[in-house]
Design goal:
Chain lengths: 254, 243
Amino acid sequence: MRILLRAVSPLAFLGLWHVLTANDVVFLLRFDRFPGPAEVLAEFARQLATPVYYQDLAQSLVRILTGFALAAVLGGLLGALVARSRRAGDLVLPLVELARPIPAIALVPIAILLFPANEQGIVFITFAAAFFPIMVSTRHAVRALPTAWEEAVRTLGGGRVRVLRSVLLPGILPGVFGGLSVGMGVAWICLISAEMISGQFGVGYRTWSAYTVVDYPGVIVGIITIGLLGFLTSATVEVLGRRATRWLPAEARR
Amino acid sequence: MTGLSFRLEDITLRYGARAVLRDLTLDVAAGEILAVAGPSGCGKSTLLRALAGLLTVGEGRILADGVPVRGTSADRALMFQDDALLPWRTARRNVALPLAIRGVPRAQRAARADAWLARVGLAGLEGRLPRDLSGGQRQRVQLARTLAGRPRAVLMDEPFGALDAQTRAEMQRLLAEVWSASTTVVLVTHDVDEALLLGDRVAVLGGGGLADLVEVPRPRTNVDAPLRARVLAALGAPTLETT
């Protein structure tokens, strides 16, 4: 019963899409040039049979995973460092707070100027997008750790390494995964935008180039592909996060 | 291995800018149970944290077996009122933590941890996470974890304060049972009866210092009403907390 209910909105959307485009409706919005679901499906099937589709997919995935992994490692390390050491915080945070409000996508010109290869620039944009949410959430997670956990381990004879390994790392995971989820989301936004602006491969580039050559079904296929990739990577982060934080009390889990 | 002895020489302890204890001098004998009672804010928890090495003494010094206390050590384990178990570790793995720190081989840790858990009456619950244990059970795990590290002194900060009366009584019995003379215990409490029940001596803090130091005669099956009255008087009735 529930599955039927849940199928209602996507099916209604498809139906509406079909009716609007099949009849070339022009009322407020123009559907006369817009491809219908059948056309898009045919184009999707055609693209799935071409190697270019998978090359673009792989290219975008490599870019996002590289940028995201760099952001996770550096953002996590820096977030933990500035939370633990006031001196490190004083040293680094002013710059971070100044840079943080700048949307990563605004850095595209800088990336083009600075990096010799296009590829590095795009990865840099992706990295910059994911870095801040991850760093900030790690910092908060470290600060929010109950002091009793660390103190208990220290009075049991544990040293710095033990506190780091047995208290800090596992204790901050719930907060860090929150940041990773957000980071993955903004990383996709910026990756696709950067690819549209300056890419030579990738699903973002392919989508935009389909638009410029008036291949509208291709545009929709690109958009759907982007959505699927975004869903896949976010779901992966989510699943890993749940596994790592299974110990949370029921009300804190979602 | 014997219990640790403490000597507090003219120590002043601050909480923020405020001195909560001034010029306190006190000896804790090896193997004794010293109960520290006093109203909230009298500095008893601060004192305990100083003994644990979690905070440094501004003036005066604390000696453990004649050596100045600097930093924490496995010799001086602190047991908290609550929420000090690592929530991602099962009861067994919480108790195994001090074993790992002490360098007990991995293969032996689980069995040893289970033995400790059995001693505190938690056989069968070794695989539970803290969130799936009751408050009393969690304190039992904490007691097992604290003792598993074989500390020479156990510093307890209101360990049973958050428990209901019946669980509290069980825990007090349990502590008396598992406590051995090779361990010194400093037990902070605001419960006069608990102090008299468990302590060899009761140090009453108040007014920024030691208000009274009461020796509890053995056997302590029958706690004298006059002693209770004396401790209560030292505490000062108006400042006495109600649980």
